[in-house]
Amino acid sequence: MSFYEFKTEDAERFAQNHGPVTRFGKEMRFRYCPYCHGGAHKDKGTFAINLETGAFNCQRSSCGAKGNMVTLSKDFDDFEISREVTSYYNINNYNGRFRTFKDAHRVTESKDEAIEYLKSRGISEAVCRKYEVTIKEKGILIFPFKDENGVLKFIKYRNINPAEGQSKEWCEKNCMPILFGINHCTSFDRLVVTEGQIDSLSLTEAGIENAVSVPIGKNGFSWVPYCWDWLKQFKQIVVFGDCENGTVTLAEEFQKRFPKITRTVRVEDYQGYKDANDILRNLGKQALIDAIENAEAAPIKHIKEMADIEAIDIENLPAISTGTKELNDILSGGFHFGDFVILTGRRGEGKSTMGSQLVVEALSKGHNCMIYSGEMRDIAVKNWIDRQITGLAKPYNSLLAMCEDWYRGRLFIYDDNVIDENETDDLISTIEDAIIQKNVRFFLIDNLMTAMESAASTNEALYRQQSEFSGKLAKLARKFEVVILLVCHPRKSSGVLENDDVSGSADITNKASIVMTYSRVIMDGREIDPAVRNLAITKNRLTGKLGTIKMFYSENSKRVVELKSKDIPRMYLQTNLKDSDDMEEIPF
Predict the structure, then answer these.
(1) All domains of the chain, ordered by start, with CATH?
(2) Which of 92, 359, 450, 474 has the lowest CB atom count within 10 Å?
(3) What is the pLDDT of residue 576?
(4) What is the pTM of this model?
């Protein structure tokens, strides 16, 4: 565990003053080396920073500069990684500004007023003298902070009875901040950290070894660089901060800096009290001991008890019917809430039509829907949907009005058809809002990957964007228990389509719970029937059941149904209107 972990943005900040730069794979290459500036011949491109490790070197033999970001921070006055890094590595003698104390090893004698005050807080004279707590002047306690070698580094004052407007606590200026009580720690097994000095003394009073407290409150962590090497030697750190509004102070910062070894006292073990000293005075020493023994590590993300999961019948999970019996049978009822579905197929073979047909089916079952179309204008999408609902190539006006009344307040479309890398987050946010505000349960996204292709600068960038976006969609579907259907193009132009043929990152189909392909039926290199399609389920994470269904497509109505049920009438609208002259005889 090192104090500084390289971040790409650190290299980018250095380049602002020492560029220009060009990126080549995992390297940031500078036009001129910031050390030798290319030498007499102004050699270019000899200096590079590795964007994975932060290591750098100059390839000019007469220069040969090498190191890492900390080296650059030391060598260039116009670049600082952070104040913490500067402090930890004492760059350019940064820590030389701290004052030193005469007789820094001298033991301070505790005065009676300090002893009596700490007794009133449940802390014995022996503990007061051990930690050298004394009085500066009447009513002003002194807490000396000494390092592991017993050298005085920091002094803090506490006003026992502050008048209105007076400070309660303050410290000496220009002192190196460290933890209080370091010099009395006896092992590196377990360290207990409190917010206040009286709290750490309360733990010592209860017989708890290795109790320390922070120098400048819950929000001040300037002490970390000066205690890091000492802290990381411990096997376990227990945070016993103040309990405020149901949370324990200091805990989040310690968990972030020392995630593997930090535990936190449980809120319930405060039993309504604010801090360790309150517990000592009201509940006694054993309550402090028990609280530390019960301290818990931060919950591990993405883990829950298997026994807490509700036992269900997978075959009878709530689902959105697809309107196709064979498909419902394969999927155990249809698309289940939480499914992230991939639909792929070659250009011009009808995958978008299949997607919009599924929207109509979801609407017919009472589910609100939303469409994103990256390839069609909104008026074209509406025309497609209206034809599928009515079964007519040219629905007449009164029937169109009925369509609009049927899906008003239930069917929505994303108000844009070009998405760049940054705007994908806007779409995710819009989907989330639509779930919460419009109760949308079924989403069709067709075809976002096409729009991404125009925004990405390289295939690597495109695949990263696609993978990240697919992951967000999958998480969104699970989190809100909705169905998200993503239409994607395949890579291949011929042959049977498989999961790995989806264009872009392989992570796209890895993240999906269902993958379907929709294609014309080709035999011996020829299409057997322009109205027949194959709908193949090539991935079904819930049950593993796969299969291929023959579908029938009507060019007039844009409807897609099972081939064997193509002559069965399908009614989405309840109407008593008589057929007009321009209605076509389309039974399904």
Answers:
(1) 8-96 (3.90.580.10), 112-297 (3.40.1360.10), 325-565 (3.40.50.300)
(2) 92
(3) 42
(4) 0.59
